Amino acid sequence: MTQIGAAEIPVIPRGVRLHEDKVRGLWVLLAPERTINLDPIGLAILQEVDGTRSFGALVKILAAKYDAPEDQIAGDVAEFITGLTDRRILELK
Amino acid sequence: MATPVPAPIAMLAELTYRCPLSCPYCSNPVEMAKKESELDTEVWLDVFNQAAKLGVLQLHLSGGEPASRRDLVALVAGARNAGLYTNLITSAIGLTQRRLVELEEAGLDHVQLSLQGTDAEMADRIGGYKGGFARKMQAAEWIVEAGFPLTLNAVVHRQNLHQLPEAIEMAVAMKARRMEVAIVQFHGWAMLNREVMMPTREQAQEASRIVEEARARLKGTLVIDYVPADYHSDYPKRCMGGWGSTGLNVTPDGLVLPCHAAQTIPSLSFDNVRDKRLADIWYKGDAFNAYRGEDWMQEPCRSCDRRKLDFGGCRCQAMAIAGDAAATDPVCVKSPLHSKMTDLAEAFSHGDSAELVYRKSP
Question: What are residue B181's DSSP bridge partners?
């Protein structure tokens, strides 16, 4: 099980950006030599990543928004974020 | 029923064939267009806009050396305006600190820096440019200082493969997020240097082992993309992710190619952005439709399960080795020419020549 500390802050670093792909009708994350198609869950998570909110704060916001238990949301969000930090697409500070 | 043609995701814009380096494995054609025939700023900006509307997301600005274009900053700004992710593929020769700041202000997203060797002796010999290594190391610092994410791009071959572990350490020390390790692919000028650059089978295996070990050790620190030695493989590479399915290439004089080596296939003719709209060329151009889908395939590809994985491999390699661009890539164990390929690779990799044939700028 993936662990991210509640105080850690996920950051979309320089050189990575959210982009609406109007030709294909979806949102993507553009990164060096990578284009990641986002499903609605991935997009919902990344739209809350503003470089100041901690992982704990993100989980609270998303749990309230989707009316779901925080520990379940925490697991899903941690897995998504870790998949991107392992590939140097997101950073934790 | 043929599947519909997808929109392209990536475009390689070869802004110029001019380059201060003369790497003997350059993927540019052996016959290159001269400066006078290069597309001007306005035409490139129009092409970038057309590309974005067509569905291109990633723009790779390359060459030659793209920094040799005086209008590079304007081209980057225009590409960003069009909504494209902009990637500069450079040797860093011609990039001053001031120019990097201008590129950063213009919105350049990412810099990919080529590495010819891990010390001046090797790098300057391979690049054919004395003092190039020192300037590159200085530029690498400026690139990171300016805030760009950096990818270090190492092309490796028999002359420099022993430096691979050091190259990986250099990428980490430079704070690169990514590294590309590509064993030289034999197209363009590299075809003239197979005897000098072909790695031995043992070297190729060692390179794979080094990359695998580094990937595990550096997880979360450095991402490594790896192009293994083609000639020593049993199955061909998934060339271009399928012909005319994900990417396109525009040459300095405006020809639109399905891949950078496509001009080595003499039966193909190419459209030019000066004459036609990019969307027309992508969807209707003869060169793009020549090897799309599966109808062009011969046996053993036609009835092979792997055809959906590797699309029969590289068309340009089939042309070069089999003399037929629609043949199975001779790298494949199922190709009747596979043993010829293995023998070629073996013979080239034990060549005793160290005499490089350098690329000549137009």
Answer: B154, B226
| Helix and strand numbers, DSSP H then E, in chain B | 13, 9
Residue from B75, B46, B45, B62 nearest B11 by CA: B62
Kindly state whether residue A28 falls inside one of the protein's structural domains.
yes
Q: What domain count does chain A have?
A: 1
Tell me the pTM.
Answer: 0.95
Q: Closest CB to A35: pick one of B57, B148, B220.
A: B57
Asked if the Cβ–Cβ distance from B57 to A19 is below 8 Å, we say: yes
* Interchain contact B57–A (C-beta under 8 A): yes
Q: Please answer whether residues B16 and B64 qualify as being in contact, where contact means their C-beta atoms are separated by less than 8 angstroms.
A: yes
* B130 min Cα distance to partner chain A (Å): 30
A77 within some domain? yes
Residue at A30 is within a domain: yes
Q: Which two tokens stand for residue B40?
A: 């001007």
pLDDT at A14 over 50: yes
**How far apart are alpha carbons B156 and B87 in whole angstroms?**
22
Give the domain range for residue A84.
10-92
CATH code of the domain containing A71: 1.10.10.1150
Between the alpha carbon of residue B44 and those of residues B8, B87, B120, B224, the distances in Å are 17, 15, 35, 31
- Residue partners of A74: CB distance under 8 A and separation at least 6: A59
Tell the residue number behind the tokens 């046996």, with chain if given.
Answer: B299
Rounded to whole angstroms, the Cα distance separating B187 from B239 reads 13
Buried b (16+ CB within 10 A) or exposed e, B119-145: eeebbbbbbbbeebbebbbebbebbbe
Q: What's the pLDDT tens digit per position in B17-59?
A: 999 999 999 999 988 878 789 999 999 999 999 999 999 999 9
